[in-house]
Amino acid sequence: MVVVTSLGPPEEGIHHKEESTTTYINEKSLGKGTLYVSESRVSWVGDAGHKFSLEYPHISLHAVSRDTTTFPFAENIYLMIDVRLVDHESTPTPTSTPETSEDESDDPDDPGMTEIRFVPDNVAKLQDIFKAMSDCQMLHPDPEDENEDEDDDDLQDDGADGDQAGDDEDGAFDDADEEDTKCRGDNGHQEEPMEES
Q: What residues are paired with 17 via a beta bridge?
């Protein structure tokens, strides 16, 4: 599955279009362009000719960042992509997270991650962009989440048969009878209740 493509802007299913949006891949600025949030993908077309599209299954996280004290020092839409992106010369983009170590980047089984920030000139539109991404991403459920739901259904079905976990007909979790009014000690010996002083 392709994560980043050089497809142009989507032609249908567009939920939001935001012009004058600066894009950063990790800490590298790609300049200003137009952001498209569609049902099929998130696309950005730069004024200088750069363009890319992201498929929803690879967007691990998207959020509104209102922290102006850290990079890029402006409110933005923050995306975490579950792969390490490379530029057109096939060199990995620089990472912006200080937690990333050299060992992690050398692991062939670790696809890495990439941070993307969309900084619109009109920050009043951040919530609209976020909502459009949320709505469109819901159209592309994570296959791993679907497998977990199936596993949960299997467990519930097993419990309904009466011979698997979940069968509590034996009364193991019933409330204890409260017939005795006197307190019981550790060994079941009756003791008189303590008097109030």
A: 36
List of domains in the chain: 4-144 (2.30.29.30)
Return the exposure string of 76-115: e unless at least 16 CB atoms fall within 10 Å of the residue's CB, then b. Answer: bbbbebeebbeeeeeeebebbeeeeeeeeeeeeeeebbbb
Question: What is d(CA 4, CA 94) in angstroms, rounded to the nearest whole number?
Answer: 16
Report the relative pairing of strands 14-25 and 28-38 from DSSP bridges.
Answer: antiparallel
Distance CA 84, CA 105 (A): 9
- Per-residue pLDDT of 46-55, as tens digits, reads 999 889 999 9
Q: Could you give the CA distance from residue 153 to residue 25 in angstroms, rounded to a whole number?
A: 40
Does this model's pTM top 0.70? My answer is no
